[in-house]
Design a protein that fits this description.
The protein has 219 residues and is an alpha+beta fold. The chain has helices spanning 28-41, 49-52, 91-96, 108-114, 123-126, 153-158, 191-197, 212-215; strands spanning 23-25, 60-64, 68-73, 76-82, 88-89, 103-106, 120-121, 170-175, 183-186, 201-203, 206-208. The protein is built from eight helices and eleven strands. The radius of gyration is 17 Å and the shape is globular.
């Protein structure tokens, strides 16, 4: 989705950032509705919503290519939304509150594909280095979120000990051996089906480290 917004010239880097379009101020009533929608979609962010979008702050709305809307505060991108898809946090929000979201993990071999913008496929999640929710209990991030401490391999596996996720849910993609999430996107298939079939598309469009949205400057 955010690879680039135009054809590159011969002397340009393929890591060119997105060029934002028109910017406007978000009305206070709309901003209240956005805050509510965020806490409903991501209950783990509820304790932090005042920190992320203070009540007396002023959100900006920016139009991006491919019918994407970006919400920013003081030139800091916070959330984006593609048409009627769920409002989705920028990876900087994910990194700030990593345990506030449901998550899955790809193996080492899938990292370079994800960071090149390729479709995320099931084998990168069902291999020995991948992780999917166990299907027990509530999803990570539903009871509250925040910063995490360090732990061993057993403690790390508990991060994925939650309910199975459904098609259409927004999920954070972590990577084997890496501390920070590398992608966030909408599931095209539920995690129970991924575990059963072990093949097929999991996320075909998302926001990943190094893409145009990550590199975009709003100053």
């Amino acid at each position: 989705m955010f690879k680039k917004d135009r054809q590159l010239a011969a002397d340009e880097s393929p890591l060119t950032s997105i060029t934002p379009g028109a910017k406007s101020k978000v009305k206070s009533s709309v901003q209240r509705a956005i805050r509510t929608k965020i806490t409903e979609t991501y209950p783990g962010l509820a304790p932090h919503i005042e920190e992320i979008i203070p009540k007396k702050s002023q959100l900006d709305l920016l139009k991006l290519p491919d019918r994407v809307t970006l919400y920013a505060l003081d030139s800091h991108p916070l959330f984006y939304q593609h048409m009627d898809d769920p409002i989705t946090p920028h990876l900087r929000i994910v990194h700030q509150f990593p345990s506030a979201f449901p998550r899955i993990r790809i193996d080492r071999g899938a990292i370079r594909f994800v960071l090149s913008g390729a479709t995320l496929m099931a084998p990168g999640l069902t291999s020995a280095g991948g992780r999917l929710p166990s299907g027990n209990g509530s999803a990570e991030g539903e009871a509250g979120g925040g910063k995490e401490g360090e732990g061993g391999e057993e403690e790390e596996d508990k991060r994925y000990d939650g309910r199975d996720l459904e098609e259409g849910e927004v999920v954070v993609v972590e990577a084997e051996g890496k501390e920070e999430a590398c992608m966030i996107g909408q599931l095209r298939v539920g995690t129970r089906e991924i575990k059963e079939k072990k093949k097929g598309v999991v996320i075909d469009s998302g926001h990943y480290l190094g893409d145009g949205l990550w590199r975009m400057e709003l100053d």
